[in-house]
Amino acid sequence: MSTFFYMLLAFIVGVLVGWFIWGRLRSELDGLRGELNRTKSERDMLRAETHRLSGELDASRRTRADLERELREAPSAPAKASADKAASPAPAAAKSSPAKSSAAKSASTKPAAARKPAAAKTAAAPKPAAKSAASKTSAAPKKAAPAPKKAAAPKAPAGKADNLRRLIGIGPVNERLLKGQGVTTYAQIAAWTDTDVKRIEEVLNFDGRIAREKWIEQAKLLAAGDEAEFARRFPTAGTASNS
Predict the structure, then answer these.
(1) pTM of the predicted model, to two decimals?
(2) If you placed Cys at 206, which of 100, 159, 188, 201 could pair as Cys (CB 3.0 to 4.6 Å)?
(3) For 34-63, what is the mean pLDDT?
């Protein structure tokens, strides 16, 4: 009887100890799962930050290349201006040459006019034609070709601009480039077509990044004011107070 009692007591103690150990292991397992989820969210945030930084780096490289090209093309403008100045006295010389020829012609015809008045009249008749021709030739270089009109830059809508940096993948550089293209609101991005996406990607030097980071889906939720759905689908995006 005593042996059976001790065996039953040992069994009950073993069950209690096993239950206690299992409870601790289960709590530790739940803690590890929570840590794993937090690590995954941090990994997603780091990936989004990496994409944003790479986009800003590409935009900076593009801006640098544009500045270097402008610096290389800058010396050609003064050279062109000096060439225009050097070529400008030519019409004056052309204008003075008909005057000299007409003076020489009148001087040569004076003795003939003294001898034969009729011959002087016939010789003096072509003078108006020569003067008109000289005035036409001198006036022709003065007409300048109309300057080509510069293409007008796209204008931003008159409404209040939105905080575009709330979208994943848009940083300070991309926001400045988008505003340069007239894009200042979520509604504009939500209404982009395939042609608009291709044009913006050429400006920002992207390659499929707008579709990969779902700019249009994010902009549609923000334009509709659905903050809860936006926070649920894009937890790593900026908040309403993000600057």
Answers:
(1) 0.37
(2) 201
(3) 89
